[in-house]
Amino acid sequence: MDIKNLNEVTPFITKDGSEIRELLAYRNSAIRNQSLAEARVPIGGSTQEHYHPKAEEIYYITGGTGRIRIETEIREVRSGDAIAIPPGQKHKLWNSGKEVLMLLCCCAPAYEHADTIITET
At 27, which CATH number? Predict the structure, then answer.
């Protein structure tokens, strides 16, 4: 049985600049086809625009407020919002609030630096 506690997982920085804590993936559990991580975007911060050729993602906002752009559409997001990001869709997330923007990120297949293509400098 694999149970990971968020407070016991070491954070790392993804290729797009997000600080994440990977809770479950093939690297640390019996899960083989997806990954679950918590990401944090600091106040005034953002991710770099990027896309994933293979992975589809679900972002679930658990705290804070922000804006997301997927391709050319921009929307405000807040705690409780679930966001679908299909493979190949360029996306960027901004923290526009007054607290850390926190979200769960589900990727299938699992997150990989090699499957992250940065599209801004």
Answer: 2.60.120.10
User: How many domains does the structure of the chain reveal?
Assistant: 1
Opening angle at CA 51, ends 95 and 77, nearest 5: 30
Say how far apart CA 101 and CA 79 lie, in whole Å.
9
Contact yes or no for 85/49 (Cβ under 8 A): no
Which domain, by its residues, includes 84?
Answer: 13-118
- Please tell me whether the overall predicted TM-score, pTM, comes out greater than 0.90 for this model: yes
User: What pLDDT does residue 107 have?
Assistant: 98
- pLDDT (tens digit, 9 = 90+) per residue, 47-67? 999 999 999 999 999 999 999
